[in-house]
Amino acid sequence: MAVSKKSTDYYITNANEALELKLVRKSEDIEDDSLAFNPEMTHQVFGDSETIFGYRDLKIKLYYSAAALTTYLGVSYTSKADVDKFDGVEADDIEGNLSKVIQRGYLTNLDDFRKAVLKDNKFVPFGELLRSFNIEARENQPSKSYEVYQCDVKVPGFYKFHERLQTFILWYIDAASFIDIDDDKWKFFVVYEKYKVNGDTLYAVAGYATVYEYYAYPKNIRPRIGQILVMPPFQRQGLGVQLLRAIYQYYVPNPDVIDITVESPSDEFQRVRDYVDVKNFEDLVKDNPEILVDGFSKKLENLFSPLKLSKKQMRRVYEILRLQYTDTKNEADYKQYRLDVKKRLNIPYQKEKADLKKLEKVLKGPEFSAVLSFDNPDVRMDTLEREFRELETQYRRILDRLSLD
């Protein structure tokens, strides 16, 4: 007898809702539902549809001890689809899928996990302490203390710790992939909350960043930030800003570093980056804002260069700062600013246009006309205006945040 679509639907579960993550500091946290959080995405483990077939009332508990990240996996459901009633289609292998991405040796017994949580009392952060800071109390949250540590794979014990830590990127960074930690050019920056219980100092992992040190001739390096993640329970506290500042603190004084770049930054991280960079640069121009009016000059580049940003990011920071000092009610000043930004936005287009012109020697007649059919001045002006407005909106968000400091 065929199974109705409605019956099939009973056994399809949204993986984002079924998967429950938790950072456990003490045994009582295991039963505290308020500490649980869900992933933003699961397609990298459960497929593009982000659904799981074969279970009713499915709950997947993926818990970590807050410091050492010892892992517990528990799967529960009220009923499982009978393969004979679903045309031979078996229920998805949940543990099989997860076991491919979580570290071997994970626990499936809650009593064993409770004992593992107690061992976190002896946890000591890996590597070198770079930065300590406090987050002031706000709303119903008390003040908190944090520390950022830098380490690499040579630090004893960090290899296995990182295997547990990196699983979080699958749930929060799209197109994430695990890195080859055996490559000693990787550096890691981990931020921990530091707190006390009965006089003992304890730690909880709050986020981390990875940096790859690319070689640059003849004996230099170009660090590139690969991934940066703040755990959901610790977001909206400014920890991303502190992580980036720790990375700068580590690399900027190094004379071998040419510049610090970012690999495919998300929109959210680009906002963090812009905020930190503008904050660092504004002190350099506040006593002489006139230096911004002449455009992105060599003099300005030399002024900014000690902070070791890429030229592209320097230009972006310059445009934000210039907007800050531009009287947008003065039409002449505002027009000059718009033209300066649009001129920069138009550079890739002009290069493409020049490259296409070279094709004129190869393509003839209708073929070449088809290639240049997009080359409409009015369309290009509209595109530039739209690109400028989008940038201006982004820039004003940064300036608004700076105004709150």
UniProtKB/TrEMBL annotation:
Active site: E263 (proton donor/acceptor)
Keyword DNA damage set for record: yes
Residue ranges constituting the Histone acetyl transferase HAT1 N-terminal domain according to the UniProt record: 11-174
Stretch list, region Interaction with histone H4 N-terminus: 48-50, 212-214
Domain N-acetyltransferase: 180-251
UniProt keyword terms in alphabetical order: Acyltransferase, DNA damage, DNA repair, Nucleus, Transferase
Site (Interaction with histone H4 N-terminus): W186
Coiled coil: none
One record GO biological process: DNA repair
Histone acetyltransferase type B catalytic subunit C-terminal domain residues: 273-323
InterPro entries assigned to the protein according to its UniProt record, in alphabetical order: Acyl_CoA_acyltransferase, GNAT_dom, HAT1_C, Hat1_N, Hat1_N_sf, Hist_AcTrfase_B-typ_cat-su, Hist_AcTrfase_HAT1_C
Listed name of the protein: Histone acetyltransferase type B catalytic subunit
Native source organism of the sequence: Gryllus longicercus
